[in-house]
Amino acid sequence: MSNRRKPPSSESWPAPGQLPSLRKRPNQSRSRALVDAVAQACLQILDEAGDEGLTVARIAEVSGAAVGSIYQYFPSKDAIVAMLYERVLDEESEQLLLVREDVVRMPLAAALREILANIIRVELRLFKLNQSFHLRHHAALHLGMWRGPYQTANEFIEATWLPLLKMRAHEISTPHPELAAYMLGQGLRGVMRSVLQDIPQQFESPAFLDSLVAMALGCLRPQEPGDGQEDA
């Protein structure tokens, strides 16, 4: 997939909310075929021309669907792109369950590395699909909360990260596990978004994963002032 373009600045973008949605869901085989054709055309155009070349008119041309038929289901171009993201997140949600099962048996550092490596992989997949859309709707593209029962980020953290830390209480030393859980669940995610926006070429580097793991362990095993320093 093409990744030639520099990600656009998001300084003027509003805070993202829910993903744009379809006007209506296709129920009949003919309408489902139309929606699938639109999705495939959207993927092809993004791969060949990027977001700049993606228009409803071009999607209609590549898919063979009439513009009016497309608008029966999609209120905007973003709603079409959102459908692609929904499909990816549904697929990755299944993989996430396997990751969560595996990390239960790992030591803390290894578990953090596995979790963070998977988040990086998914974030990169979403980013390459459509860079501007990914940055604009990053808050809604939260794999851990996708299709989950959580209404807020705090609910998600309390149901996932905090129990993980409690299970590993013998491996951590922080007196503030709730804060540490928040930093792992939201703080590192914010770091990832910033790297994607500012220095995306570093996102796949081993050094970035190493840095995230070190930051996570620093939250869980904070040093006392003066630790590791030689006496004057």
UniProtKB/TrEMBL annotation:
Keywords: DNA-binding, Transcription, Transcription regulation. GO terms for molecular function: DNA-binding transcription factor activity; transcription cis-regulatory region binding. The keyword Transcription applies. Residues 1-26 are annotated as: Disordered. Residues 32-92 form the HTH tetR-type domain. Pfam families: TetR_N. Residues 55-74 bind DNA. It comes from the Bacteria. This is HTH tetR-type domain-containing protein. It comes from Thauera terpenica 58Eu.
